[in-house]
Design brief:
- By secondary structure, the protein is α/β, with parallel strands linked by helices.
- It has 10 helices and 13 strands.
- The strands form 3 sheets. It has a 6-stranded mixed beta sheet, sandwiched between helices.
- Helix 7 runs antiparallel to helix 10.
Length: about 375
């Protein structure tokens, strides 16, 4: 495997070996790619083997569950969610993306643990539960419901991870917003602790469909369902160091959630730039893109162009340079840099990212 090169290093590239990256992927299974009669390499579709979990969206009626699902996974404009009808039955939606999983939108007026429902049919195979709490409403009842749900399911399904979305916080004043978030977190944690559950697997996120907070929150939830997250993070740390990216993400281009990032502190502004960049790229692709697999290339030069993965770079965006490289039909690597000489060093960045892409394809658990 070729090794990433630091753009600032002037030595011969063939002498560089990064042992940490090699050891990271050494013990992972690698499925061989197939080669057609023309010598072109084709990788199998990406998946996560038999790891195909489902995720439940739960919460009281009108808390915003359907709006969240529509904005994140169906690309609905936030203002259009005002016309969504209340959910009265379990709405199941399959997501065919970087991994196969189901989103179940659960009606909020039903208690699924009261004994009249088949609990196993609902909660077996669930990887995560997202409980949505409306921060603009009285939140004492939903706190009681979410703690009861966690307490009853923890013993039966210990593998389930829980996330609480403190939703609709965008319209609250800054001081009241912070107090509300803190109060919900404290009351929920105290209730679980008083019932004997220490260190529960619960995370809290303040969200709104009118900004990027909902995508960032769902990114954290999805990452909990990805079994090889530590490997991806280790590889991205190497890319960030060698390419001198301020922040680097692997983003699902359809939903704009990121399945992994490097271990540097979270940067909301950088993530917002990446989401807007993905939107622009997808809009251009809808207008000018073509199916490269079906493209009949008339000459060698056109075939060479079609064989390469898509990439893009834009500079001087709020003093940032954004670099995008397609990994496959679902995922893209996006790096954010503030280096003034990034364009001059792009050749080395291209080499490092290509090495990462080749490694990433091989370490993914393909179905």
């Amino acid at each position: 495997m070729s090794s990433p090169i630091d753009p600032s290093d002037e030595d011969d590239s063939s002498s560089h070996v990064i042992q940490q990256q090699d050891s990271t992927i050494a013990n992972l299974p690698i499925d061989p790619a197939s080669e057609d009669i023309n010598g072109e390499i084709h990788y199998p579709p990406m998946g996560f083997g038999k790891h195909k979990p489902k995720m439940l969206l739960m919460g009281l009626k009108r808390s915003g569950k359907s709006s969240i699902s529509s904005v994140v996974f169906r690309k609905m404009a936030p203002q259009d969610t005002l016309f969504l009808e209340a959910t009265t039955t379990i709405h199941k939606e399959s997501m065919q993306s970087f991994m196969d999983f189901q989103i179940w939108d659960m009606p909020g007026q039903i208690d699924y643990l009261d004994g009249s429902f088949d609990v196993d049919s609902i909660f077996t195979g669930v990887g995560g539960i997202v409980w949505v709490i409306d921060a603009q409403d009285n939140y004492m009842e939903p706190i009681g419901r979410v703690t009861d749900t966690i307490l009853q399911l923890t013993e039966l399904y210990p593998e389930i991870k829980y996330s609480v979305f403190i939703h609709k916080t965008d319209s609250l004043t800054e001081d009241y917003r912070e107090d509300t978030i803190r109060d919900i977190m404290q009351k929920t944690s105290d209730e679980l602790f008083d019932n004997g559950l220490e260190n529960p697997p619960v995370s809290f996120h303040a969200t709104s469909i009118y900004d990027h907070s909902i995508f960032e929150a769902f990114s954290k939830v999805i990452q909990g369902l990805v079994p090889q997250l530590p490997t991806y993070e280790a590889l991205l740390n190497t890319v960030a160091a060698t390419c001198r990216f301020q922040k680097v993400y692997i983003i699902d281009v359809m939903s704009k959630v990121y399945i992994a990032s490097d271990s540097s502190p979270a940067d909301t502004d950088a993530y917002e730039l990446c989401c807007d960049y993905v939107n622009a790229i997808m809009d251009l692709s809808d207008m000018y893109g073509w199916d490269r697999k079906q493209q009949q290339a008339p000459d060698a030069r056109t075939r060479d162009i079609c064989a390469h993965t898509a990439e893009s770079m834009v500079s001087s965006v709020r003093n940032h340079t954004l670099y995008l490289r397609e990994i496959n039909a679902f995922l893209a690597l996006i790096g954010v840099s503030t280096e003034p000489k990034f364009q001059q060093e792009k050749a080395m960045v291209d080499f490092n990212v290509q090495t990462f892409q080749d490694t990433m394809i091989r370490v993914l658990d393909r179905s």
